[in-house]
């Protein structure tokens, strides 16, 4: 039987031109497209699969690749900041005869709207673990299984938008039935074949990394950098941070054996020395970290890890485990330098004291922090903004930061903040429970009509509307504080940036 799908192009769409860069842009690879490509090649060896990252490959080159390669299936990873480029790719793909499928956070949050408004997009994959859904879609396009059996797929039907709410990982893919592997469901995801991404991409990641962070490795030979993702989720799954747009925060793990197999494979394939383990919260499972330390092979060399951690979960024991694992830098969402704002944004365990304590623990261990600050939460005022600016200066003055990002809050529609905008009744209920004010009732009531149907979002506009409704600090004050933090960081030699902000809004005033 002649296969309908022979050529597959997987693209992590790069940020749209008008968005500012964040501190880590282009320094670590988009692993998702590589992992998708790996499973496709495993399940369908006949496929010709290419994976590229739009964060480092110019849009013009990707467009030329689409035209020359003429993929039968074009898969695009879509974030809120790359939606415009994603649509351009989908339209070009259709022009060259491709079936198009969107995935990742923005596609999942806006799936039904995208399918209603964008004829160039055939399917949306809403799976957090999308590897097996994409493989199943290839089978369905080849006529080897019903489309209705493809997990977490959304698509048009004569009766409207269908959504196949099926398990993301097929039961027969989950290894082990008990013991140490009982919770190692992510062992089902094979170790990524990083050779499926062009070699020049890896060279570019390394060059970008060394240009930005090479000063942290004086006297070391850094031969390669990569991302890995052997665990997912967060301990805050039942009460997530209000601005977190991650769709699935349930804790899932790979076995320690597969973790180190992933490390060893990356060493062999791309000479990786630096690993960004993108587990949403490494500190959420100290037991898993300890299992990795205990299973670390004697001959693995000295791999170094960049991991996500939380201030409220940081303890001397955790820091020591990080040191033994090889953690050289941490990604920590500090969010604010004001205790009142921290409790509103994140929860009762968070405070300025905990942020400071975590910073001091990591400084003592010689582990610098990549931190982020979110301005304009519910009830933000001039005093809390000043506290956050002062905290940012304290972090930098005490040489705790490798990089620091700051930006006004964007109410992601997949997060609680976005849900408040789309449900004014819920917003009023939460405001009453948590003790903050609704400052513009009429504007709040207009939000569902303004943002509830379109698939295109003006990020500055929705952020400004949020600010008007929920923040005592004005939009101009949030921008001023953002610029103050970024300017101070840059002046002290700290890498800085802001995501989900347009260049126009961050022009000096």
UniProtKB/TrEMBL annotation:
It comes from the Bacteria. Gene3D superfamilies: Aldolase class I, Cobalamin-binding domain. Pfam families: B12-binding, Radical_SAM. This is Radical SAM protein. Keywords: Iron, Iron-sulfur, Metal-binding, S-adenosyl-L-methionine. Residues 217-449 form the Radical SAM core domain. InterPro entries: Aldolase_TIM, BchE-like, Cobalamin-bd, Elp3/MiaA/NifB-like_rSAM, rSAM, rSAM_sf. CDD domains: Radical_SAM. Its cofactor is [4Fe-4S] cluster. SUPFAM superfamilies: Radical SAM enzymes. Residues 14-148 form the B12-binding domain. PROSITE patterns: B12_BINDING, RADICAL_SAM. The keyword S-adenosyl-L-methionine applies.
